[in-house]
Amino acid sequence: MSRKKVLRAAGSALVVLVSLYLLQKLLVPKYVTDVVEGAFIAEYYQEEKDHDVIFIGDCEVYENFTPALLWEEYGINSYIRGSAQQLVWQSYYLLEDTLRYEKPDAVIFNVLAMMYNEPQKEAYNRMTLEGMRWSPSKVKAVQASMTESENFLDYVFPLLRYHARWSQLEPEDFTHMFQREKVSHNGYYMRVDVKPAENVPEGRILADYSFGQNAYDYLDRITNLCREEGIQLILVKAPSLYPYWYEEWEEQMEEYAAVNGLLYVNFLDLLEETGVDFTTDTYDGGLHMNLAGAEKITRYLGRVLRDQAGLEDRRGEEHLSRMWEEKLAAYEREKQEQYLKYGVEEAGEGGNARENSAENTG
Amino acid sequence: MLLTSYEFLGFLAVLLVLYYLVPRGFQWKLLLAASYLFYFVAGPLFPLYILVTTATTYLVSCRIEGIGRRQSVYLKENKGSLSKEEKKAYKQKNKTAQWRWMLACLLFNLGILAVVKYGNFAISNINGLVQALGGRGEFGLLGIIVPMGISFYTFQSMGYLIDVYRGVVPAERNFFRLALFVSFFPQLIQGPISRFGDLSQTLFSEHPFEGKTLCLGLQRVLWGYFKKLVVADRVVTGITTITRGGISEYEGAYVFVGMMFYALQLYADFTGGIDITIGVAQAMGIRVAENFNRPFFSKSIKEYWNRWHMTMGSWFTDYIFYPISVCKPMLKFSKFARAHFGEAVGKRMPVYLSSFAVWSATGIWHGASWNFIVWGLANWVVIMISQELEPLYARFHGRFSVQGKWGFKLFQVLRTILLMSSLRIFDCYRDVGTAFRMFGTLFTRWNWQILWDGSLLELGLSGLDYGILAAGLLMMVLVSLVQRTGSVREKIAARPYPVRFLLWYGLFLLVLLMGAYGVGYDASQFIYNQF
Amino acid sequence: MEELLEILNDLHPDVDFETCDSLIDDKILDSFDIVTIIAEVNDRFDVTISAEKITPENFNSAEALYALIQELEDED
């Protein structure tokens, strides 16, 4: 081949690669102003990894526990690796992934996801898995999560998945092509508005109340991994009224915790102790806590972590304190912004923009 | 493995690399292995079917040739001693033996095809008949999965055997070469139906790597994907809404819209698939016969059928139409008809009779159900009518000199498109009764306002979709127009590199960004897959 | 030969069959024409042109077709 041809080929390849890269950057969803929970998983990697506690699980962790309060009141440095409808195997692989960077003292897993034994929805898969950095854990997570219509290649090249988004591009797709600001507070999704819980439906009668084998297998793997690594695993059930938490499910989790010697805290049974009031402490009618509710149950959890799990107060550590100072400032800022935003309609219907995704996120 | 799956692209990429890495004498063997792998992935039992057809065809073709060889040796040795009559009788005897072998093999393979593809159709018709006659009981349906492309490879091997019998091609002595001819994977999905004499010229030869050949092939593949993914798979939503939705809702003008959509989809899907097939073969230096010659530029139905699915058409002509129309009984019938029905009519009767057979076969070939048979016969009727009207046309052209004028040609082309699309309605609705009824509503329900009052946006296609479809259609028409004076790819290849690069990379991006693929789009089977 | 040309001219009066040697390649004769020709030939020459003899080489020109007819006549 002549020199000219080689140059030509190299030049063409460069044009192709660069343009495809830019296209991909442009077309993938940014999760900045809408459906922000899609951005959570990726945000973890920007953190300094020295956490005492890691949360894993679905929206019941990232909307109900606030690491800022755990730091402020207990000196516990925590991070939530939660995502919408995070399935048990995804939690497991996220834990594996986290352990590549750090080893926390305790891992908190919210058990609602036990209700799912199979891959559920492509959209949620994307939000959980896309943000993960590539590692053997991610490969396995993708393989375990794909629904029938999905293809592994779509995860390797998200451009293939989002190729048709060019017709729905928003300004944020251009402004946030390369950089996205943080949308969570250590994985916590803040909401201050109120929508009281009314007429929460009873759970439908199910044919079979036992959790699936696949879900149990991955819960076992979480338990074993924590045991091997000397990490204390704590199971929690957030105080969400819906999806309905059946008595039969509760029994299975209690038994599992007992057999494996795990701490299990069901906040649904602790409404009095925590002081959660479903007329003021939820922003979507009982599905998730608002900030007031989250602070109440986090305060309780903090006590559990301090008294029963023996986590120490690290507020004396200078480096950590400085880091948290910034975080708390940002936390406070958003709090004020939201009060301003929702304040006017504090008693009325808040957050129409979120209504759709709130109904779906598990 | 669908042609539009990542798996197929991966398979193709690996194969192409290997193909040019292995010793050249090994290339066709690699193709054979790849073809069987491809077929195995489609269905683990499928290779067995194709193997049986290959083996029987191989044995019988060798046998037929053996008889011929012995005959010439015998005739040579006994040149002096045999009288003319003896020679003739000997030849006749051999010919009969060859004929019997061929017939047995054809019937055997046709039998397999009939059972797996048409078994259930026959059984359900028999059940229906039994019930209509007041009988009770039913025959159970067969639980056989129709092997992919069985019609294509069966017809291809039958054609080969007949060619050997006719002495058009020598019998292939190497079993594995014949096996590759029968199973060559790009053709397995939707044809074309190749002739041995044609395909064997490049299939087994050694192909050194040539950048240009590879590029031309892959470019054609890309164009195929454009037609298939951008146009065909996008318009399919509209067709489904119209034909499978609440039937009564979509009457009148909707039927027309559905017909046009279907014409677009069928064209883009089928020719796109064939582009992929031929392109893949070309990338490996193998020449596969063309299957289309800008069919929608045809000025009559008969011309259309000479330009659409050409390899199937010529197969039916050579192996069904001619044998039937020139066989002795038919020639006798021809004489009889001319004597009794008059010269003009009698002359045409045999032709009509044989083409009736051809069109019934064409209909059945397309699918094991009545709607296809009716569709085939409707084609026959239209062709016969236009044949009968020929004197009238001649008189018309004698009076008005429009023949060859631009406007008249356009009229003819549009007329053909309209006629063909109307006939395809049997294909569209999959049920003869519904098809007739819906076609009727075209004239009874006058709702043409749907074309402009926004109803078209309710069919599952957005304004954007229509825009993309229109642009895709325009591109296909333009390419066809340019094609009239030679290969478009060659023309592009003559341009400076940056132009070339931008054109092809641009087309790639169009497919990538506007293709109807992936999550949210149904993995769409090629329409011709099961044929 | 005269007789054959008569048959052909009857079919397509506008074609010069004496010189044209691409009747098939240029799609002047279609399958219907070929069958009609074979029926006529069978009628007037009393030879049967079987399907396997229907090749472009045999039908591209009147001359080639005539040669085929003669060959078949000889065989009988």
Keywords:
heterotrimer, A: 362 residues, alpha/beta, five-stranded parallel β-sheet, globular, disordered C terminus, B: 531 residues, mainly alpha, 22 helices
List the SSEs and their pairings.
The complex is a heterotrimer of chains A (362), B (531) and C (76).
Chain A: H1 3-27, H2 40-43, E1 53-57, H3 59-62, H4 67-74, E2 78-82, H5 88-99, E3 106-110, H6 122-129, H7 136-145, H8 152-156, H9 158-161, H10 171-175, H11 213-229, E4 232-237, H12 247-260, E5 263-266, H13 271-274, H14 291-308, H15 318-343, H16 352-360
Chain B: H1 6-21, H2 27-42, H3 46-77, H4 84-132, H5 150-166, H6 175-183, H7 185-188, H8 196-203, H9 211-244, H10 253-283, H11 301-307, H12 310-325, H13 328-341, H14 343-366, H15 370-388, H16 390-399, H17 406-423, H18 425-429, H19 432-444, H20 463-483, H21 488-493, H22 497-514
Helix pairs in contact in B: 1-2, 2-6, 3-4, 3-5, 3-6, 4-5, 9-10, 9-20, 9-22, 10-17, 10-19, 12-14, 13-14, 14-15
Chain C: H1 2-11, H2 31-45, H3 56-59, H4 62-75
Give a brief description.
Chain A is of the alpha/beta class. Chain A has helices spanning 3-27, 40-43, 59-62, 67-74, 88-99, 122-129, 136-145, 152-156, 158-161, 171-175, 213-229, 247-260, 271-274, 291-308, 318-343, 352-360; strands spanning 53-57, 78-82, 106-110, 232-237, 263-266. The longest helix of chain A has 26 residues, at 318-343.
Count of alpha and pi helical runs of chain C:
4
Biggest sheet, spatial arrangement of strands of chain A: 2-1-3-4-5
Overall 3D shape of chain C: globular
Q: Based on Cα principal axes, name the global outline of chain A.
A: globular
* Low-pLDDT regions of chain A: 344-362
User: What percent of residues of chain C adopt helix (DSSP H or I)?
Assistant: 55-70%
Order of helices and strands of chain A: HHEHHEHEHHHHHHEHEHHHH
Characterization of this structure:
The complex is a heterotrimer of chains A (362), B (531) and C (76). Chain A is α/β, with parallel strands linked by helices. Helix content of chain A is 48%, strand content 7%. Chain A contains 16 helices and five strands. In chain A, helix 12 links the parallel strand 4 (232-237) and strand 5 (263-266). With 531 residues, chain B is mostly helical. Helix content of chain B is 73%, strand content 0%. The radius of gyration of chain B is 26 Å and the shape is globular. The two termini of chain B are 16 Å apart. By secondary structure, chain C is mostly helical. Chain C is built from four helices and no strands. The relative contact order of chain C is 0.19. At the B-C interface, helix 12, helix 13 and helix 14 of B face helix 2 of C.
